[in-house]
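hi support,

uploading two proteins for the ticket. first:
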Amino acid sequence: MAAVMQFAIQAPGNMPSGIGTSYRSLADDVYKTTTIAENKFSVIESVKKAFSFTGPQTRRSDPLILRVQNEPRVEPASGMANRDRKMPASASAEETALLGTMPSDSMDDIELKNIQLQFPNARTLSRDDSSVLEERVETGRGSILVAVQGNRSKPAILTYHDLGLNYISSFQAFFNYIDMRALLENFCVYHINAPGQEEGAATLPDDYLYPTMDELAEQINFVMSHFLLKNFIGFGVGAGGNVLARFAFAHPEKVEALCLINCVSTQAGWIEWGYQKLNARYLRNKGMTQAVLDYLMWHHFGRGTEERNHDLVQVYKIYFERHVNPTNLALFIDSYIRRTDLNIVRELEPTRRKDSMTLSMPVMNITGALSPHVEDTVTLNGRLDPTNSTWMKIQDCGMVLEEQPGKVSEAFRLFLQGQGYAVKLSRKVSTSTSAEVAPLTENKMAIFRQTSLDGLNLISKHKTRNSSPPHWSTSTINITENPISEAVVC
């Protein structure tokens, strides 16, 4: 071994002079001469000595990395070394397939010929939806636009939008969501637009007296009469939720259930009143200014929306600037900040809950964790009957219908099922081999009843013998069957 090591060190023509016995390689001589501390020599001399290896001589068989004389060295076999340097020219189909899936150090067979850039489809808000039909409905305070989506013979869902929005920017994307499309097979959706808030609306006359929040709620009666609706399920956002809550409180027999998002039940505070007054003045005199735009974005999305969902923010900024009539929006804002309290109170005494001054129908109260209206929804929840109301806060969003449509659609579907509506959704067929629980038949139920009664008789007789206190009689025990044992799973 010592003789071999001596030969490797002193082989003429195989190692540049002046390097000594340190670790070196051919690649280091050519490409990394300035990064290794060694004896001084010029780069030109190093390149010349490197090219001396590519002469007409035979291919070198010794390794490029040299070691000091006294350090042990393991030399690979020549066959293995050649195999590592070059892939075999001829091989079986199996070896070729195997080598084709393995990474290779050689990039000679790869050539970049073309680069294609693919951009995602830009999100837009447009009224080009063939499934929606728009109709004008005459009311006591002028005409309003109502968009109908679905089969009119089905149960009705009535929606109302928030400030700066309309049925397109507030509900179009949500009701076209894949899970919400199933609702259109079981319901008909009526989208109400506040006066002058629809897309492309003309500026209202100067002498037009915009309806108050209570008058906006009373306009729903005209919509129900126009479409021959007896009752509906309300779905409102922000200011629209306040309008629907007022109508439901005044006409509880016409509202089966309510889904309210970021709804405010109290009158406007001083801070909100001041901001909205400035916004209304800017909208009348200067149009959609940057200050008004920032306030609308905060009102709908909360803070940190640019980092959370930049593309969605840009879509709504462009929509506010181009498709919203600023004068009409100023009138709607003035009406909203002059709202009165809903005057609903939770009744703590169980015997007086039937006559309580609160919403009697089931209510689902939703907000986003990043929304600026979380505290308002908590206040509303504290004024509702806890036996028929639900408060839900969805994480990582401010505008829940746009940022978390899947969670809202699932909650709304379950809410409708709780009201007795069967909403069928396509589900994947389960491949589980576990046995399913079969529904109980009448014979089985009779056997279970008799067994339970016999057991209770034995217990009562045993207690009668051992103690004198009274026991429950079997005649006062009622066993109720499971009402959903044979229900259809939706």
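and the second one:
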Amino acid sequence: MHCKYLFNGIEMSAYPMLLHTVACLWYVFFWSNFLSNSQTNEEDWDPKYRDINEMGYRFLTNWNLFFQTLFFAGCLFHDVMKILNGPNWLKLGSTFQTLLSLAFSSIILPTGIFVCVTFWLMYAYDREIVYPKIIDSYIPYWQNHGMHTTILPLILAELFTTRHKFPSVSASLVLYLGFGLCYAIVFLETYIEKGRWVYPLFGLYSFPIALGIMVFLFVLKLSFLFVGIFIQNMYWGKDEKKQYRKPIKKSS
């Protein structure tokens, strides 16, 4: 069932705006609570948790949360642009929509799927290699799900409610590789600076094997980019074919 309405002569679906509003409200609530965790007295922290907290911005989970927050805020802003429909808004909105779609296909979607899937697989195998039990004493369990579970239904809902115009595969790959390179630099710089890995998993192996695992995970994350493109084409491709299908003229 499609829920659409006309605003200033423009047909819009209510579902994307509803999703973007809920997502933004959720992240305002999440970040306000999550950041308050760091305001506790550090002298009372367990040394193991202090080492984990020190990594902060180096966790891919936090990168994903930050970019998802920016993305959904951008989506809501774009919805407002379409509603206002003022001078030059549509031209600007078209460019902004292209940027949102590029970010969604190359960073938001593959990273969100990767973080959720790999985290819970490793957590089920041995949580100490990815999310040590000591963290539960400082970060509520619901915030753990906010970082590693909620992210998936949000981006899947975005995929199925908003018809993004995915860019070419090459354009998505360029941005994906750029994002991956930036994180790889931070990841390796942390090991060089502190002599320990961001995630305990890598500390279980020698440096060459740890690099091999890193490359494997990078390729695995890349596969989720193509999964997203495939789902996008399968789900929205049918509507596009109907939209651009030419009527057959009946012979007289």
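thanks. also noticed: The radius of gyration is 21 Å.
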